[in-house]
Design a protein that fits this description.
Elements: H1 7-15, E1 21-27, E2 32-38, E3 46-47, H2 49-55, E4 57-62, E5 66-72, E6 78-86, H3 93-114, E7 118-121, H4 129-134, H5 138-146, H6 150-156, E8 159-160
Parallel strand pairs: 3-8, 4-7
Antiparallel strand pairs: 1-2, 4-5, 5-6
Organism: Actinomadura meridiana
Protein name: Transposase
Length: about 160
């Protein structure tokens, strides 16, 4: 059985006898069978911001081509120089996913070296029309926002409540 995008997650589930739902579907027009596996992801562990600050936090800013990260002091102020973890979102899905996974892995290794207990990820709020205007119109703005892999970063990290 071959799962292209989430094979590792599927193997983790079945190796510890966790529930996986399967759906088998015949596409009559293509004369092909499809197997879809689904499962529930565990709830991400969150801790209050105050508790995270006492144990150490790295703040992460998501951008269209990199994650920017700072070690934060107990008051939320940056300590030391920022770190940047670049990725290239051009090309196909496999390439983009690999780029993001690689950037997240480098980020998590750096976070571990910082010996902190939490990662705070910016809470993107694009509700204000001014933000759209700053980026040159709706279409360009949507392209910028959709290119930011915030969701993928959030699913890989245990989070503190979002930093505003």
């Amino acid at each position: 059985m071959r799962f292209q995008h989430r094979g590792a997650q599927w193997r983790d589930r079945v190796s510890v006898n966790r529930a996986v739902a399967y759906r088998i579907h015949l596409d009559v027009e293509r004369n092909r069978w499809y197997l879809t596996a689904s499962w529930t992801c565990p709830t991400l562990k969150t801790i209050p911001l105050e508790a995270a600050r006492t144990k150490g936090v790295v703040g992460v800013d998501t951008n269209a081509d990199h994650f920017a990260a700072y070690r934060l002091d107990g008051h939320g102020n940056p300590v030391g120089d920022p770190r940047q973890f670049f990725f290239d979102l051009s090309g196909g899905t496999t390439h983009r996913d690999a780029q993001i996974r690689h950037a997240i892995t480098r980020l998590l290794h750096w976070v571990k070296r910082c010996q902190v207990q939490a990662i705070g990820i910016e809470d993107l709020d694009f509700a204000q029309a001014k933000t759209r205007e700053k980026h040159g119109g709706r279409k360009r703005f949507r392209r910028i926002v959709s290119g930011m892999p915030t969701g993928k970063l959030r699913t890989q990290c245990h989070l503190v409540k979002p930093l505003g």
